[in-house]
Input
Amino acid sequence: MRYCFRTLKEDTDINEALQKLKGKARAEFIRNALRTYIQTQNIAAELAEIKETIQEIKDILQQKNPRTQDFLVQPESKNDSEPLGEELFNNIINQFLNM
Output
């Protein structure tokens, strides 16, 4: 199958990265970037499931022994405004662009 897309004016970082590549190298780069994006989304979904399971375990422990609350307090995240999956994806793409 063949796909095509256009970048936007504000996609300067994407344009710079793609202009450095030619032909098959550009196509391979885009394919790998998309594959990495898909894998990142899968990892984010798995992490969400793990977080949910951990919360369920904490709830069960809390019900069993209310004194465990002190041990179950989660440390605050450095950046709660950005979802972990999106942060991970951005880091991976930046690594690709800096190759």
